[in-house]
């Protein structure tokens, strides 16, 4: 798994949550009244929850993606660089007083259908890009995803969703 500071992870997660804002109404597919209720509940809990206050907890269901993800750069792939253990990948951030929903790649891609997600910055943002791409790429069939390069920039394309990151 990519080495990422707790603050960077919380920032990425907060940015991801802001992309899923149920109030914007653009590109969101509402499938049932239950989804609307859940979105309302999530929005209300975000208002009451300070996700920067909490602790790291061990969770056997982690990591959310395999460390062999082909989009991880060699500098951040601990196991490919000889680290023998993997328990460090099983930690997640748990805010005090609320719950962060587990990332659902298909739901995320559905909400981002026909959108372009841009992550602009330095090597830390590159790690964020790699992490997000590794989170979503596992639910896309091999022939339906690709990466394009334009100088130092790159884009991951989920063709069935017409989404690029």
Give a structural overview.
The protein contains 4 helices and 5 strands; from the N terminus they run H-H-E-E-H-H-E-E-E. By secondary structure, the chain is of the alpha+beta class. The protein has one domain (6-164). It has a 3-stranded antiparallel β-sheet, with no helix packed on it. The chain has a two-stranded antiparallel ribbon with strand order 1-2. One of its GO terms (molecular function) is O-acetyltransferase activity. Pfam families: PC-Esterase, PMR5N.
Structural class: alpha+beta
- In total, the number of domains comes to 1
Strand order, biggest sheet? 3-4-5
Query: What shape does the CA trace take?
Result: globular
The pLDDT mean sits at: 79
Helical percent range?
A: 25-40%
Radius of gyration: 16 Å
Total count of helical runs of at least 4 residues: 4
| Total beta strands | 5
> What is the ordering of alpha helices and beta strands?
HHEEHHEEE
The CA-CA distance between the termini, in Å, is 19 Å
The share of residues in extended strands comes to 5-15%
How is the secondary structure organized here?
Elements: H1 6-19, H2 33-48, E1 54-58, E2 91-95, H3 105-111, H4 123-137, E3 145-150, E4 153-158, E5 163-164
Antiparallel strand pairs: 1-2, 3-4, 4-5
Summarize it.
The chain is α+β, with helices and mostly antiparallel strands and 165 residues long.
């Amino acid at each position: 798994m990519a080495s990422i500071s707790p603050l960077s992870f919380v920032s990425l997660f907060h940015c991801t949550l802001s992309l899923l804002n149920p109030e914007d109404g653009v590109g969101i597919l509402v499938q049932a009244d239950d989804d609307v209720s859940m979105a309302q509940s999530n929005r209300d809990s975000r208002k009451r929850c300070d996700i920067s206050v909490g602790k790291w907890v061990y969770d056997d269901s982690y990591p959310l993606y395999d460390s062999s993800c082909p989009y991880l750069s060699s500098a951040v792939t601990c196991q490919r660089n000889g680290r023998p253990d993997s328990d460090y990948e099983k930690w997640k951030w748990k805010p005090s007083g609320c719950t962060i929903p587990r990332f659902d790649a298909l739901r995320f891609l559905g909400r981002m259908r026909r959108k372009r997600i841009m992550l602009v910055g330095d090597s830390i943002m590159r790690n964020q890009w790699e992490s997000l791409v590794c989170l979503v790429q596992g639910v896309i069939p091999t022939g339906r995803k690709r990466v394009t390069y334009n100088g130092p920039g790159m884009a991951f394309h989920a063709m069935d969703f017409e989404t690029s990151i």
